[in-house]
Amino acid sequence: MNAPLLSISRRLRHTPFTRRVTEAGVKAYTVYNHMLLPTVFKSVEADYHHLKKHVQIWDVSCERQIEIKGPDAAKLMQMLTPRDLRAMTPGQCYYVPIVDATGGMLNDPVALKFDEEKFYISIADNDTLYWAQGIAYGFRLDVDVNEPDVSPLAIQGPKAEDLMARVFGESVRDIKFFKFRMYDFLGQSMAIARSGYSKQGGYEIYVDGTEYGEPLWDALMEAGADLNVRAGCPNAIERVEAGLLSYGNDMNWRNTPHECGLGRFCDTILAIGCVGRDALLRVAMEGPMRQIRSISIDGDKVPLCTNMWLAFVDGKEIGEITSAVWSPDFETNVAIGMIDREYWDDGTIIEVQTPDGMRKATVCEKSFI
Ligand code: THG
Fold first, then answer.
1. CATH superfamily, domain at 65-136
2. 110 Cα: distance to centroid of ligand 1 (angstroms)
3. Residue ranges per domain, the chain?
4. Which of 17, 223, 267, 305 could form a disulfide with 84 if both were Cys (CB 3.0 to 4.6 A apart)?
5. Pocket lining for ligand 1, CB < 6 angstroms
6. Which helix (H) or strand (E) holds 291?
7. Backbone phi, then psi, for 143, in 5-degree steps?
8. How far is the CA of 239 from the centre of ligand 1 (A)?
9. DSSP assignment, residue 14?
10. Which class is 289-369 in CATH?
11. pLDDT in tens, 45-67
């Protein structure tokens, strides 16, 4: 049976790089924040091997920015997240859970602080813009909350630093993990951060203005020709090996940050003003009843995981698998799932109900990478 195609129209937003991505031979897309996100170029496995050896340019425009600007910007930011933002300095990126009034996860973005009155929230796939605008309006905050014409372009892989130094100068080598600096491209200033949705190292360029998209893409491709640079995209295998969470796949608004293993990014007692603070204080005291874990699933290649697979111990349901894929490097199926407290210790043997039958699996305390 042929897989159905996804019909593309104007309603499904294109990006400043879509023409280049098409020319590069993109084979599949997904939809993320109502925008095109490439998922395959050569094949998921070929893309994976290339990402770990060379350098790739990723159109991650769909990581849309919520720009928060004005005298109450810092106040609104703290209302959105249980992470204590008081020590955040300009030029820093913070991974911040965003929660609703019940402590449920609305998003797990990267926040950037430009100054006391300007932040970006680089969101995962949920319409968090409206939540932020609603809070700003409801509390009569003195802020503008909007989605600017800013599109992240990620440069990922072991040769990312060399490629970026050729285009932006040697100083990019000094940018530390989760910090950003401003750089000029064709006279336009844009933030460049040491970050990205892989564990292979790299940068994210917050391309400020659609018109700079293609010139920047071309400059990077030209400068990296001898580095074997290619168009790429967040890789389904590498991100599961790395234990990087995918909002909507591995968690949603029914989960607390603690269930998602993001308790280390919560300072619930100190995060005064956070809308979900009261709900999370209880969770922080008692600890979660289940939590996200990396899991290895025995046997050969598992089928596509498009729906969660239940997990069992002695016939009792003890969790669910939300992402699973064959890893060529680890020679096992790597997975992410939510596992009940009594069964989440490292090395616990469980059973997973995959579409082609029960498989033995092992819970891992740490990610594979
Ligand atoms: N970069 C940017 N925006 C994004 C993503 C990104 N928006 C959508 C999505 N990805 C948000 N989710 C994540 C998930 C993980 C990380 C970043 C965004 C991440 N985590 C590191 C880790 O877990 O090892 C580091 C966390 C830390 O130590 O602070 O990078 O990728 N711009």
1. Aminomethyltransferase beta-barrel domains (3.30.70.1400)
2. 6
3. 18-61+149-240, 65-136, 289-369
4. 267
5. 63, 95, 108-110, 122-124, 152, 178, 195-197, 204, 244-245
6. strand 290-297
7. -145, 155
8. 11
9. -
10. mainly beta
11. 999 999 999 999 999 999 999 99
